């Protein structure tokens, strides 16, 4: 599958309203989302045929696999535990059922979810290792705190969202990229986000066509490329943001 090219129009905002800033956003304008995986499995809405894994009985061969794509799985069979070195999973859930079995991959760092649903509880442990989370048309339920993702560096959500957006977004100390494009699920109060507390953040985007966003983040500064546009944004907020559009 060819890589998906995401084109992002960005602008920078200044530390103080009225301050002129120089945009340093070019490296964020074109981001390649790598959807390629070493192997792909699909059950075509049927019970997965475990016999397919017979050719993967050699654990040395399995150890070479770093990424797997699953299509139309709601439960990942325990037999996939043999792929113990997998760091990246792509899951396309046609039926949008909850995904089970992610804990079978102890080295999982990158998760791509498309058209599915994911329920996370207080006892979910695999989230602690996630560094990149990418979603498309996906709803994530049950996350009470972003501290469940202490190593998260990139959060890229398109037409997705959390059922309830945790209030401690500022706890994502390693986050350098956050995009909520076409935000669909859950309400986000941007005034609860303090950009100054996100020391590694380089890019922050929120785009929404529904009544699910309010305010703008505090602590905006010229080190973070920011794009904010949503239905119902206050005229004063829009005016303040427009002052710092990069040309």
Outline of this structure?
The protein has 247 residues and is mainly beta. The chain has a domain at 1-34 and 142-247.
Features:
mainly beta; 3-stranded parallel β-sheet
Topology order in helix (H) and strand (E) letters: EEHEEHEEEEEEEEEEEEEH
Unreliable stretches (pLDDT < 50, length at least 5) are: 1-30
Approximately how much helix is present in the residues? under 10%
Tell me the fraction of residues in β-strands, as a range: 25-35%
- Number of helical segments? 3
**Strand segment tally:** 17
Overall pLDDT metric: 83
Describe the strand arrangement of the main beta sheet, using strand numbers. 2-17-15-13-11-9-7-6-5-4
Radius of gyration from CA coordinates? 19 Å
**Quick one: overall form?**
elongated
Find the structural class using helix and strand composition.
mainly beta
How far is the first residue's CA from the last residue's CA?
34 Å
Major sheet details: 10 strands, mixed
């Amino acid at each position: 599958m060819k890589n998906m090219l995401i084109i992002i129009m960005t602008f920078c905002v200044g530390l103080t309203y009225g301050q002129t800033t120089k945009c340093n956003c070019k490296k964020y304008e074109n981001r390649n989302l790598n959807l390629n995986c070493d192997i792909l499995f699909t059950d075509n809405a049927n019970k997965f045929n475990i016999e397919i894994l017979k050719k993967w009985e050699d654990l040395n061969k399995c150890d070479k696999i770093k990424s797997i794509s699953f299509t139309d799985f709601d439960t990942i069979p325990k037999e996939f535990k043999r792929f113990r070195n997998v760091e990246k999973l792509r899951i396309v859930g046609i039926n949008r059922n909850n995904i089970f079995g992610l804990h079978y991959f102890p080295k999982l760092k990158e998760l791509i979810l498309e058209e599915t649903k994911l329920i996370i509880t207080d006892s979910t442990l695999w989230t602690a290792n996630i560094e990149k989370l990418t979603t498309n048309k996906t709803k994530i339920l049950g996350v009470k705190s972003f501290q469940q993702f202490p190593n998260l560096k990139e959060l890229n959500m398109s037409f997705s969202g959390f059922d309830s957006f945790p209030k401690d977004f500022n706890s994502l100390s390693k986050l350098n990229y956050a995009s909520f494009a076409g935000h669909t699920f859950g309400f986000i109060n941007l005034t609860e986000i303090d950009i100054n507390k996100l020391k590694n953040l380089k890019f922050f985007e929120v785009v929404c066509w529904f009544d699910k966003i309010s305010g703008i983040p505090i602590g905006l500064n010229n080190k973070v490329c920011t794009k904010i546009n949503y239905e119902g944004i206050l005229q004063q907020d829009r005016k303040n943001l427009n002052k710092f559009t990069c040309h």
